[in-house]
Design a protein that fits this description.
This protein is an alpha+beta fold. Helix content is about 45%, strand content about 20%. Strands 2-1-3-4 form a 4-stranded mixed β-sheet, sandwiched between helices. Helix 1 runs parallel beside helix 3.
Length: about 90
């Protein structure tokens, strides 16, 4: 299974929803980068994604986007193939 990295904050309902969806699809470990605790990481996130809102989710090297993007990807049947890609 691909590594999952998520830029997040301590109090973010969309981050919680995204984590639940990923866990329900078999993701056992999510690397969380707390942009509220590490301001330099928010700058890095914005540089990588062009976005300033959390969550910002990466599966392997692929930037999925935020929670709505993750839910849409799952609804279209694209999440599991991305997670399972070698």
């Amino acid at each position: 299974m691909q590594a999952v990295k998520m830029y997040t904050t301590a109090v973010c309902p969309y981050c919680v929803q995204a984590k639940r969806l990923l866990q329900s699809r078999g993701v056992a470990s999510i690397e969380e980068i707390r942009v509220d605790a590490l301001p330099q990481e928010r700058a890095r996130m914005m540089e990588l994604t062009g976005r300033r809102t959390v969550p910002q989710i990466f599966i392997g090297a692929t930037h999925v986007g935020g929670c709505d993007d993750l839910v849409a990807l799952d609804s279209q049947g694209g999440l599991m193939p991305l997670l399972d890609a070698a």
